[in-house]
Amino acid sequence: MTNTTSEPQEIAPNPVAAAAPTDKVVLGWTHTARFLTTASQLVHLPPNELPEIAFVGRSNAGKSTAINTLAQQKRLAFASKTPGRTQHINLFHLGPKDAPNALFADLPGYGYAAVAKAAKLRWQKVMADYLEVRRSLSGVVLMVDSRLGLTDLDKQLLEFVTPRVRNGEIKLLVLLTKADKLNRKEADAAFFATQDFLGDIVTEESDVRVTLFSALKKQGVADVAHILYEWAHSATLVKASFNPEDLPDPAAQVDEAVRPAAE
Ligand SMILES: Nc1nc2c(ncn2[C@@H]2O[C@H](COP(=O)(O)OP(=O)(O)OP(=O)(O)O)[C@@H](O)[C@H]2O)c(=O)[nH]1
Ligand SMILES: [Mg+2]
User: Fold this and answer.
1) CB 106 within 8 A of CB 52
2) Counting Cβ atoms within 10 Å, is residue 173 exposed (0-12), middle (13-18) or buried (19+)?
3) Collapsing DSSP states into helix, strand and coil, what is residue 197?
4) Ligand 2: distance of its center to the CA of 6 in Å?
5) pLDDT for res 247
6) Contact 89, 107 (CB under 8 A)
7) What's the number of CA atoms in the CB half-sphere (13 Å) around residue 244?
8) Which residue's CA lies nearest to atom 30 of ligand 1?
9) How far apart are CA 196 and CA 97, in angstroms?
10) Residue closest to 90 by CA, chosen among 76, 72, 111
């Protein structure tokens, strides 16, 4: 029967929706970001067992600003008008103080013309090594200026991670930054062009997403917090459930009423 009144309806709880964390929970989690350490070389990075999410992209794309916005702190990561500001890999802890559950890594930007060639090559090597071999790396947030779209350097970087993205080892989120500089039509065009390009990387195992983002207008902030929270917590769950004998019997948890009839 169709109900035509505007009375609020009693809706049966949807177990999936009920389990999804609220904006408050996921933003509360990103707000816990705090500085852990800085390193100029890979060998100086501390070993890490937690899910690590790296923020990468061209110099000036807005990486540090995005981290500050997610953390709701003005100067956690050093954002600047001067491209090439972030010269080291800066690590941040997230989660409870006594039991951190994820790491953010703010990486130096690439493609800044004024950096000397030798320094540029050194950094490209560090970045490539980091993306290819860092075991704890479980997510990459590629920040792209929405007005420029994916540049050749971004595409080269994607090549370094593509094998691990395709097999699902690394999740990928492309953030189209500074979306406040685009009108609706331009934003749609940037979004679909990026999604189109990423089509080749997507497999059944992969987790590849695109989001428009503006630190200035706070656009996409909660969406990004949801994605990163999900990544961090699903990785923890996978690790926690490593011993299959510890897992509860899923059949035992299915309520009789919803258990499918035996064939
Ligand atoms: N309009 C607008 N400007 C932004 C936004 N996000 C960042 N910016 C500006 O872009 C410039 C670069 O931002 P950063 O966050 O320092 O960029 P980065 O990617 O960390 O740069 P490097 O450290 O050089 O790699 C700064 O002037 C920011 O204020 C945004 O959402 N909208
Ligand atoms: Mg920076």
Assistant:
1) no
2) buried
3) helix
4) 50
5) 38
6) yes
7) 0
8) 178
9) 40
10) 76
Q: How many CB atoms lie within 10 A of CB 29?
A: 22
Query: Which residue matches tokens 């560090």?
Result: 126
- Answer whether 86 contacts ligand 1 (Cβ < 6 A): yes
Angle (deg, nearest 10), helices 221-240 and 63-71: 80
Q: In the block, which residue shows the tokens 């990544």?
A: 231
Which residue, chain included where needed, has tokens 């009108």?
Answer: 183
Task: Compute and round to an integer the Cα radius of gyration of the chain.
Answer: 21
ipTM above 0.95, yes or no: yes
Report the distance separating Cα 260 and Cα 250, nearest Å. Answer: 13
Q: Which residues of the chain fall short of a pLDDT of 70?
A: 1-18, 78-87, 113-116, 235-263
Q: Which amino acid is at 147?
A: R
CB of 139 within 6 A of ligand 1: the answer is no
CATH of domain 20-239: 3.40.50.300
pLDDT for 11-64, tens place per residue?
Answer: 555 555 557 899 999 999 999 999 998 887 778 888 889 999 999 999 889 988
**Mean pLDDT value across the chain:** 81
In the chain, where are the structural domains located? 20-239
